[in-house]
Write a structure and sequence with these properties.
The complex is a heterotrimer of chains A (328), B (350) and C (294).
Chain A lengths: L1 H17 L7 E6 L4 H14 L4 E6 L2 H9 L6 E3 L3 H9 L12 H4 L2 E3 L1 E6 L9 H4 L6 E2 L7 H17 L4 H13 L8 H9 L6 E5 H11 L4 E4 L3 E3 L1 E2 L2 E3 L1 H7 L2 H10 L3 H9 L3 E2 L2 H6 L8 E3 L1 H5 L2 H9 L4 H8 L1
Helix pairs in contact in A: 2-13, 3-4, 7-8, 8-17
Chain B lengths: L2 E10 L2 E11 L4 E5 L6 H9 L6 E6 L2 E2 L5 H4 L1 E4 L11 H10 L9 H14 L15 H14 L4 E5 L7 H18 L2 E6 L2 H7 L2 E6 L2 E6 L1 H6 L4 H6 L4 E8 L2 E4 L2 E6 L6 E7 L4 E4 L6 E11 L2 E8 L4 E7 L10 E6 L2 E5 L6
Parallel strand pairs in B: 3-8, 3-9, 6-7, 7-8
Antiparallel strand pairs in B: 1-2, 1-4, 4-5, 9-10, 11-12, 11-14, 12-13, 14-20, 15-19, 16-17, 16-19, 17-18
Chain C lengths: L2 H5 L16 H30 L3 H9 L2 H34 L5 H13 L2 H12 L6 H6 L8 H27 L2 H8 L4 H30 L2 H7 L2 E2 L5 H10 L3 H28 L1 H8 L2
Helix pairs in contact in C: 2-13, 3-13, 4-8, 4-10, 5-8, 6-8, 6-11, 8-10, 8-11, 9-10, 10-13, 12-13
The chains are: A alpha/beta (328), B alpha+beta (350), C mainly alpha (294).
């Protein structure tokens, strides 16, 4: 009898849990998977200014999140680390086509770039992309076939080579192939590559977002690693957008806009800067000048003609990346 | 309690396990359902118990139609072939189970249940084993516990499925006598299933011989042994030999020779002659006899068993001879059955 | 090659188990292999989990557990287990009973169906629910218009967990019940017990060890499931992250202490499960031995 009762209670619980709480002033922000600390701080600051509001966070790989939103995950806003994943939502009719005009700087309140982390003292004297193609240097970054992070690395190296060889495709290919040849292990994701570099002690240099190199140094000890920023790198935008379809359903458009706008305020920009991200607000950027060395950034638009073209020329089946990755 | 089985048919997935079986069991009777495996004897027992429902036909307990009653309502004591003792309960709890699950006023107090269990253990001569678990008992002891458990609910009818099937020969014989004693003491109407004719003949008031879902013969041990009414019963109970014969002018013939047996009331035509190996007389010469060549001979306890090949078709029969008969290989022996029975040959098309 | 060498083979004649008794050296090798293997593949990782969890001291350990999101993940995991395990006990007993004790059409199909979660990758199990309840799926629009959230909410996590843990109880019970047959139940019926009494006094005690084992396995998996839950969770922190999902998140954020602290809870749970099982077996060992023999 007890058992039946328990089952009954369980079923009732299931039904009760299925009914959502009343739609108070509440937002769900779907965000990239290592942005938890950043948004915990952002949300805290935001709520202080707008009491009574709840911000829920969903963190995962942004491709997965985009997929989930299409399947019904009720995210009012997205704060991703890859533009193509927002474009996916555009194609599915969840985000308006001109989303990049809704907020300043291509709807990217903060940005980062592929950067280097080397072992303390920089024993191999790695300064720039040229050093990665040198013989005897071991380079660690994940597999660009599976990792968005590594695609930025690939594009940054390619962009550098394009400038260096004045667009000579054969030389660019040779240069990037040399870097690929120096990679002893291709892990599937950024986290695994970090493990390979930091815990297995493989490789002379790890390439990942600058925002992450700081976290890694913090976790594994600043005395063991040091950051090296190359002379040129690729602008990695962190796009934000209102998920129109969901926000309209929830009646949260206004709040969503206020929230994303907050990311551009000096207060928001300061939190972002503290979390290793570069910001556009000049005053705040000046505050973090020591933390972020000068670097010249090229955009995907300028160097490659936009994400769609990148997809076609580099990442599609049998495109450039496949040739280089296959030639290793 | 009288039990009447009336025209019962039972099918499993269209396959008939019992076909039109009728049986009257008298109150206080000890009755055996005897037959080879697949004869339907266990099915009949389970139908009486209420573990199965008849496809057609009725079962009466006394004057009451019990066909649609559940097994709980029928109040039968059932002893399962492998005892089905509750392995996680002590002997005493096993025996008291039927009383413990009763409801309301009919449920005796725990004290009373314990007392009854102890009484029944006395009856089955297992006093002092109350606290044991079934796994700690011998096969024979488990059998007794199973019986005590079945009797605890004061059943109207006691049903036993192959009660001694899993025991060795020595224990079987002891328990057989013991079961008869218990029956005589308690006077339960008792039905038990067995494939062992010795057990059935020795123990039962009446034996129900079954074959292929039908009752072949019902009768006392003497009746089914001495006057079997079908070739099956003749063959299944006791030992027997059979020969194909022909009846002409009230005489029994094998091939072209009369064998000195007259059957004036038997219709002319082909028949089968049945006799038991020991119901024969040896003859010297052969005018009106069965003669055969010795094919095999072996000593069985106080007698000699000889296999003979009869006639051109070399039909084999077995006869029993005195031990001092030499019966050498290939020698010829002539005999004539002293007790025998003829069964007409059923034409195969029917 | 003197006498002792030969002597070691001699006991084969009088020792009944000699045929399966290896020489001393072989035994030592086998046991060493077993222990080393277990040590490297089971014990060592377990120790490392705890070592990492306490790497920055006991204070840091408890501080990381006292995090709001972590507490919420623990709470959700317990909730899911509390719902999923009883449901699967009921379903498992019902299914095992039906398969072991009755003959019916579609029995083979049902047996295969029960095994399905074992043979399907957990990720696929999760995707099945996405395809069923997702906004683009058959039931999605209907659920939405009725204001019922399944996917990316607690009910979806519970459903996915029920799905992947379904076979544990049923699979444990089916062979047991088949081996035991229907004899005991028929005996109880013939003694006047009603259906509930038969279950309560006969069936349940007969299967209780198998059931307990099934429940422990089911619970361990319910709390530890990652793949299927990851697909349907939506990863809303503080709301739909279970402990295993939370471990991954913390680990990806380079929060090793936090990740391994939560992992240590899961590992501790496994240890408690194991100890519980051992204690029960010791305590009821006599009865267990008695009921196992025939």
């Amino acid at each position: 009898m007890k058992r039946l009762l328990l089952a009954g209670v369980a079923l009732a619980g299931l039904v009760l849990a299925a009914v959502p709480a009343s739609a108070a002033e509440k937002l769900l922000n779907a965000s990239y998977d290592v942005g938890r600390e950043l948004f915990a701080q952002v949300n805290k600051a935001f709520i202080e200014k707008h009491p009574g509001i709840t911000i829920d966070q969903s963190h995962a790989g942004t491709s997965k999140l985009a997929r989930s939103i299409v399947e019904g995950l009720g995210a009012d806003v997205v704060t991703f680390n890859q533009v193509p994943d927002v474009d996916f939502l555009v194609k599915q009719g969840f985000v308006s086509a001109d989303w990049q005009k809704d907020f300043a700087n291509n709807a990217s309140p903060f940005y980062s770039l592929p950067s280097f982390l080397v072992r303390a003292g920089n024993p191999k004297n790695i300064k720039d992309w040229d050093d990665l193609a040198r013989e005897g240097v071991q380079v660690i970054f994940p597999n660009p076939k599976t990792s968005g992070n590594a695609r930025y690395t690939y594009l940054a190296a390619t962009a550098y080579a394009k400038e260096k060889f004045k667009g000579d495709e054969a030389q660019v290919k040779e240069f990037v192939s040399k870097i690929f040849a120096n990679v002893p292990v291709f892990d599937t994701g950024g986290r695994a590559a970090t493990t390979t570099f930091a815990e297995r002690g493989i490789g002379d240099v790890l390439i990942t977002f600058e925002s992450e190199t700081q976290g890694i140094a913090r976790e594994y000890g600043t005395d063991k690693y040091q950051q090296v920023v190359p002379s040129v790198s690729l602008l990695a935008e962190f796009p934000v957008a209102i998920v129109d379809k969901v926000a309209d359903e929830h009646g949260t458009r206004e709040l969503a806009k206020t929230y994303l706008d907050f990311l551009y305020t000096p207060e928001g920009q300061k939190i972002e800067g503290e979390n290793g991200l570069r910001v556009r607000d000049e005053k705040i950027a000046a505050e973090f000048k020591d933390k972020f060395p000068e670097v010249r950034l090229v955009t995907v638009e300028d160097a490659f003609g936009g994400w769609e073209k990148v997809q076609k020329d580099h990442f599609a089946e049998d495109a450039l990346l496949d040739e280089i990755y296959g030639n290793r | 309690m009288e039990v009447r089985v009336a025209n019962v048919r039972k099918e499993f997935d269209r396959f008939p396990a019992l076909r039109d079986v009728s049986l009257d069991i008298r109150s206080g009777e000890l009755i055996a359902l005897l037959g080879p495996s697949g004869s339907g004897k266990t099915t009949l027992l389970r139908l009486i118990a209420g573990l199965e429902r008849p496809t057609t036909g009725k079962i009466f307990f006394g004057d009451e139609d019990a066909s649609s009653k559940t097994i709980q309502e029928r109040n039968v004591g059932f002893v399962f072939q492998h005892y089905a003792l509750f392995r996680h309960m002590t002997v005493a709890d096993n025996i008291g189970f039927g009383l413990k699950v009763r409801h309301g006023a009919t449920r005796p107090s725990n004290e009373e249940i314990r007392r009854r269990a102890s009484e029944l253990l006395d009856l089955v001569q297992l006093s002092g084993l109350e606290k044991r678990y079934p796994a700690q008992l011998s096969g024979g002891q488990r059998q007794r516990v199973a019986l005590a458990r079945a009797m605890a609910i004061e059943p109207k009818v006691l049903l036993l499925d192959e009660p001694f099937g899993a025991l060795d020969a020595q224990v079987r014989r002891e328990l057989r006598r013991w079961l008869r004693d218990i029956h005589d003491t308690t006077g339960h109407t008792t039905v038990f299933v067995t494939h062992d004719q010795e057990e059935a003949l020795e123990l039962a008031d009446r034996v129900v011989v079954m074959s292929q879902g039908q009752i072949e013969q019902i009768g006392s041990a003497d009746e089914v042994y001495d006057t079997p009414n079908s070739p099956f019963v003749f063959g299944f109970i006791g030992e027997s030999s059979s020969l194909p014969v022909r009846i002409t002018d009230g005489q029994v013939w094998i091939a072209d020779r009369p064998i000195g047996l007259s059957a004036p009331n038997h219709p002319a035509g082909d028949a089968l002659l049945y006799f038991r190996p020991h119901d024969i007389e040896l003859l010297d010469g052969c005018s009106g006899c069965i003669a055969g060549t010795v094919a095999a001979s072996r000593r069985v306890a106080g007698t000699r068993r000889v296999e003979l090949e009869i006639g051109g078709e070399r039909q084999r029969v077995e006869i029993e001879l005195p031990v001092d008969h030499i019966a050498t290989q290939k020698s010829r022996i002539a005999f004539r059955p002293s007790r025998w029975k003829l069964f007409p040959v059923k034409s195969t098309g029917n | 090659m003197a006498d002792p060498e030969i002597k070691s083979y001699e006991p084969m004649h009088d020792n009944p188990s000699a045929a399966v008794t290896e020489s001393r050296s072989a035994r030592t090798v086998l046991m060493t292999v077993a222990f080393v293997f277990l040590g490297i593949f089971l014990l060592l990782p377990l120790i490392i989990v705890f070592k990492e969890a306490f790497a920055k001291g006991v204070g840091a350990y408890f501080a990381s557990l006292n995090d709001h999101d972590t507490l919420s993940a623990i709470h959700l995991t317990l909730l899911v287990a509390v719902i999923a395990v009883p449901l699967n006990v009921v379903f498992g007993i019902a299914a095992a009973w039906a398969i072991a004790k009755f003959e019916f059409k579609g029995k083979a199909f049902l047996t295969t169906l029960i095994d399905l979660p074992f043979s399907v990758s957990p990720v696929i199990s999760g995707l099945v629910y996405v395809l069923l309840f997702g906004a683009q799926a058959m039931l999605g629009p209907w659920l939405k218009s009725h204001g019922i959230e399944i996917l990316f909410a607690v009910p979806g996590i519970v459903l996915a967990t029920v799905f992947v843990t379904f076979p544990f109880v049923a699979r444990e019970l089916i062979p047991l019940m088949q081996e035991q047959g229907t004899g005991d139940e028929e005996a109880a019926l013939s003694l006047g017990a009603n259906g509930w009494q038969v279950f309560r006094y006969v069936t349940l005690p007969n299967i209780k060890w198998g059931l307990l084992y099934g429940v422990l396995l089911c619970n361990a998996r319910a709390m530890g499931e990652f793949g299927a839950v990851s697909v349907v969770s939506g990863h809303i922190r503080g709301m739909t992250n279970t402990m295993p999902l939370h471990v991954e998140i913390l680990y990806n954020e380079y929060n090793a202490v936090g990740a391994f602290a939560v992992a240590s809870l899961l590992a501790g749970l496994a240890l408690v499960t194991l100890i519980l099982k051992t204690v029960l077996e010791m305590r009821y060992g006599a009865e267990l031995a008695a009921t196992r023999g025939h």
